[in-house]
Amino acid sequence: MSQRDGAQPEAPASLGAADKLLLLKSLRLDSTQRESVGASRRWLLPTGIAAGVLLAIAVAFWLLRPVHHIAVKVTTAAAPLAGGAGSAVLQATGYVTARREATVSAQITGTVTDVLIEEGDRVKAGQVLAHLDSTAQRAQLAQAQAQYHAAQATLPQTEAQLAQAQRDLTRQMGLMAQQLTSQQALEDAQTRVATASAQVEIQHKQLDLGSAAVQAAQVQFNYATVRAPFDGVVIAKSAQVGEIVSPFSAGGGFTRTGIGTIVDMNSLEIEVDVNESYIDRIVGGQRAEAVLDGYPAWTIPAHVIAIIPTADRGKATVKVRVAFDTHDPRILPDMGVRVSFLQAARPAAAAPTPGVLVPASAVLQRDARAVLFVLDGNRVRLVQVTPRGDVGEMRQVEGIAAGAQVVVAPPADLADGATVDWSEAEK
Is residue 360 situated within a structural domain? Predict the structure, then answer.
């Protein structure tokens, strides 16, 4: 008996010698079957290696794939005012500006010989900031002084000539009374007196001219010393020793026009752009509160100074000036700040309102949920939030902490976990 397809036959309980021989023959492989089995074994190893190579290529492609960096604009989520959103009629963002800021420059062209300031130094009005080479100015001053002294030395001579001419005239007048001299001699004496008087007057004018020349030369000499125009803090040092400075932009771009920049920290205030649709909510003197982006938990009392009487046609905004009620060293020029314009005084013991304030454009609706994107390192993370109402152009939400970096107006293709290139991100 035999089995097809290589299946093993079932042996009966008792077999004869002939039957056993037939059974062994049925279990042998012929040459075609041996070739088939060998071929299967030869293809088994190459197939496994190929699968491993394909897996390695896929992993390498995943690791070396180009990463698309997305540029986004972010802002800082700020804690709302105590007393609830109802105490603020409007929220607006702006920057700290200095009303009194000056780039100090020399009033003459010269080479810097000494710079006495560094960034961060506090200076007083009139304090020396730098010196220029004053060789030419010193020589001009010495020349003017010499001319003035020469005029002073000549004045006594002309005054003596005038005195002599007056005495001669007196004698001629006495002789004329006695008919002992001629009328011509008397007139000559009178002419000499008039001439000497004119010479003395000219000499006095020469002295005035010499004195003015000395003062002008002194002013030019003083210009070689650069002084602080007011009390302030140095925020930039522009010139170095050996450079040429000038009040004019000359020298093909190789001439400096300033020594340094000074800011009066007591003149710091806030400039905010308010949408013209909400400008009717602001009046001069209105109380406000400011929160710096760098210190989101610090609320600074402020008030409205003025509403600039012009609108920006391109942005449809009106500029508003806001003054700090108190000054602090932490407040620096060009810092980002969020201003809350108050409707009424808030209770002293009012509890802070939960949640944070973010731009309304940062909150999206996805899958019937309110979400926004928060920066986490160099990636964005999708966070679900709970809106609590609008405050002007801002929206109060719960779900993130104050100080979180929130993406403003995220692109439609921005996804959770997307990478942000900080060299391209606008912050």
Answer: yes
Q: Residue 110 is encoded by which pair of tokens?
A: 């010269």
- pLDDT above 60: residue 61: no
Clarify whether residues 359 and 427 are in a common domain. yes
Same domain, yes or no: 209 and 141: yes
The span from the CA of 2 to the CA of 8, in Å, is 9
Residue 72 clears pLDDT 90, i.e. is over it: no
The number of folded domains in the chain is 5
What tokens does 221 get?
Answer: 């000499």
**Considering the domain boundaries, does residue 13 fall inside one?**
no
Global confidence as pTM? 0.54
How many other C-beta atoms can be found within 10 angstroms of the C-beta atom of residue 406? 25
Nearest CA to 151 among 192, 206, 197? Answer: 206
Residue 399 belongs to some domain of the structure: yes
Q: What is the DSSP letter of 183?
A: H
Distance CA 225, CA 127 (A): 10
**266 neighbors 99 (Cβ within 8 angstroms):** no
CB neighbour burial string for 301-337, b if at least 16 within 10 angstroms, e if fewer: ebbbbebeeeeeeeeebbbbbbbbeeeeeebbbebeb
Position 79, amino acid: A
Q: What is the pLDDT of residues 99-112, one digit of tens each?
A: 999 999 888 888 99
d(CA 17, CA 107): 130
